[in-house]
Amino acid sequence: MENLRFLHLSWDDVQGLVEVVAGKIEASDFHPDIIIAISRGGFDPARILCDQLSIRRLASVQVEAYDGMVKRPEPVVVLPVNADLKGKKVLVVDDVSDSGASILKAKEHAREKEASDVRVATVHIKPWSKFIPDYYAESVDKWVVYPWELKECLLEVAGNIRSTGLRGESIAEKLVEAGFKKRDVDRYLLLKDV
What we know:
The protein has two domains: 11-141, Rossmann fold, CATH 3.40.50.2020; 148-193. It has helices spanning 11-27, 43-53, 101-112, 150-162, 169-177, 182-188; strands at residues 6-8, 34-39, 58-67, 70-79, 89-97, 117-125, 135-139, 143-145. It has a six-stranded mixed β-sheet with strand order 4-3-2-5-6-7, sandwiched between helices. Strands 1-8 form a two-stranded parallel sheet. The protein is of the alpha/beta class.
């Protein structure tokens, strides 16, 4: 936990980063017929890209790399894409390419649905990712805290801190030191439960 570094993003930060991605897509002269959001992290970036690229068709696919807390040998499509992709140019969107395995699974799924061209866009890529998206805004080696997962992330980090033996206000202090806003710590962290 001590070596873990965080990148906290606001909605404005995300908007700007997705605009960078949209610019790269436009510069590549790729004109998708439909955008597929990888559930859950890809929903918000995908919707912003729809706006930036003037695309009205937005669908989703859910891929899981974990069964509870246990990593699966291979990611699994648990909710297939909810659109006809046959012959369409598809842009698959997620928030970050960490290992890249889930994104690659979603891309393969779109190809199985007979899309004519499948490209991938993410907001971020980690330097160790085995899959390089066609479009991304920046590479980061930090744990990215996106605004759509603030509570989930804060509670997960609090759990990691608790596992070191700290309790109560000490956990809250560590969260603030890690860059979480005090108001969010106060809102989401029930000190009597930690």
